[in-house]
Every structure is written in structure tokens, then in C-alpha cells.
Amino acid sequence: MQLAMIGLGRMGGNMVKRLAAGGHELIVYDQSAEAVKAHVAKGVKAAKDLSDVARQLAPRRVVWVMVPAGAVEGTIEQLVPQLARGDIVIDGGNSNFRDSLRRAETLKARGIEFVDVGTSGGIWGLTAGYCLMIGAAPAAFQHCEPIFRSLAPEDGYAHVGPCGAGHYVKMVHNGIEYGMLQAYAEGYEILHASRDFKLQLGQIAKVWNHGSVVRSWLNELAERAFAGDDQLSAIRGYVEDSGEGRWTVEEAMRLNVPAPVITSSLLVRFRSRQEESFGAKVIAALRHEFGGHAVRTK
Predict the structure, then answer these.
(1) How far is CA 48 from CA 28, 32, 62, 198, in A?
(2) How far apart are CA 8 and CA 30, in angstroms?
């Protein structure tokens, strides 16, 4: 089927390739002319701006927005005046589900359908397929289902509920991811710090991926990372967060659901960005004051 993809970054660009391979007709737009040019060279049609996106699409238009969360609002605001009743806007980025609920209502008032698609798969989605968690009205989902079928592996997409549900499920998915990553990080750090054994982390990751209860795709990626450098010496221990972990913790608090693992994994990410913790300085100073414990000076 025909659709447009707005945003040709690591995810959007690979999704275009997968959709084109699936026989879909793609019109693409990105602020980067070079990104657009790279896809046009492979037979995809280009749009010069958002108005041109709408002009090239035949009704019923389907436009997939794959831009960073901070750019979604502005992109949709510019796009909507170019669309007509019955058209469909898909947000496949990492948007807050409450923003998706609001956007769905705003577009509904104009007769435009909104579909939120929580998308997981990262840079591996091109070959392995993307896991898609979809929030939409049933008719909009059914209309777009050929797109989802091409993007996902077998059984890799689901209509999880009405508008907003897709990004809600993806939010919690990423919260779980935070906890899993932190557990692996702590385990491998203990192995790395051992004073009794000089352990090869790549070897351990490999054996854990064969029959162990902690085997997983994430641990396969750990094996891959350690194969390149068992000490990870070229990587700084600075970890960003894209928002979903924070939103998951906020939702857990709103629902009175204890989520200590996800919460602590988020806080550890904050700590990773500090060159030196002022809070740790306070603790050291207080221990010195009440117990005369030694402090380390610069």
C-alpha cells in the first residue's frame, strides 16, 4: 500500500527499507536532504516538504511520523492542515501516552485518525523485524495492518487497545528494559571486579547464552560487545534515558504499584552522568563529622 514516512533516522530509515522490500509505495521526507537522497537512489519517492507529502499521497492518506519525541508535536501541527477527513497519522516514536491520548482527540475533531505504535527493535529491526505495540480504533488498525505485517516478524505486532495504549505498553516495556540492563550491568561489574579470578567476560556471556536461565537477546548483545573489547575500555560509563523509564516510574507511583527495580535503575542512570557526586561528598563529610572517618581529598 502507499504511505509516507517522515523522519529517516536510524529507525525510520531502516523501516523505509523494510517496507519497500515488502512492496509498499513510499514517499519520504526528512529535514536532512542527504538522508532523503540516499533513499531516492533506491527507488523511493521524495517529498520536498510536508505539503508535498500530502500532495503525493492518494486518499486515504497514511503518514507515519518517526521523529524524536520533542519534534512530534510540531511535525503533526504542520502536517494536519495538509490532510483531509479519513486520513491516518501514525506516531511510531517514543511519545508519552498522555500526549498520544490528547493528539488522538485533537485529530478526531478534524476527522483524522491517530494511531500510536510503540516500536521496539532498534537497529536490528531491518533484518529481524520490529515488535509493534499498536493503539488505534479497530478500523484504522485494519486499514494499516499490511504495513504492520511487513515491518514485524511473525506474531510480532498486536493491536493492544485504543489510541494511547500502544505508547503505554511501550513505556512499560522500556521500564522493564531499564531493570534488565541494570541487572546485567551489576552482574558483569562484579565479575570484572573479582580479586580472586581474572575472568573473560565475553566467554562468560557466550556460555550464558546456551541453556542458562539468564540467556536473552540482551545478553547476546553483551557477548557481541565483549567480543570487541572485553574491558569496554573505549566506552565512557555515561547512560542517557529517553523518557520512558521516568514515565514508567511516574505511572507506578500514580497507581501505587511498587517498582523498586525499575526506579533504582533509572536513578543509577542519573548517577552515571555526574563527574563527581555532590551527595557522596556530603555523606563523606558527615561520616567524618560524627565518627572521625577518613575522607579522601583531591
Answers:
(1) 9, 11, 17, 57
(2) 6
Q: Which three cell numbers stand for residue 167?
A: 505508547
CA distance 229 to 74: 41
Q: Which three cell numbers stand for residue 16?
A: 523505509
Secondary structure (3-state) at 137: coil
Would you say the C-alpha torsion 183, 188, 193, 195 has a positive or negative sign? positive
Query: What does DSSP assign to residue 134?
Result: E
Under a CB-based contact definition with an 8 Å cutoff, are residues 52 and 77 in contact?
no
Which set of grid coordinates corresponds to residue 7? 523522519
Q: What sign does the dihedral 133-12-181-198 (CA atoms) show? A: positive
How many residues are there in the chain?
Answer: 298
Q: How far is CA 112 from the centre of its chain?
A: 25
* pLDDT per residue of the chain (298 residues) written in tens, 0 to 9: 999 999 999 899 999 999 999 999 999 999 998 899 889 878 899 999 999 999 999 999 999 999 988 899 999 999 999 999 999 999 999 999 999 999 999 999 999 999 999 999 988 999 999 999 999 999 999 999 999 999 999 999 999 999 999 999 999 999 999 999 999 999 999 999 999 999 999 999 999 999 999 999 999 999 999 998 999 999 999 999 889 999 999 999 999 999 999 999 999 999 999 988 888 899 899 888 898 889 888 7
Distance CA 61, CA 12 (A): 18
Single-letter amino acid code for the residue at 173: H
- Helices and strands: H and E segment counts in the chain: 13, 8
As annotated, the active-site residues are 170, 177
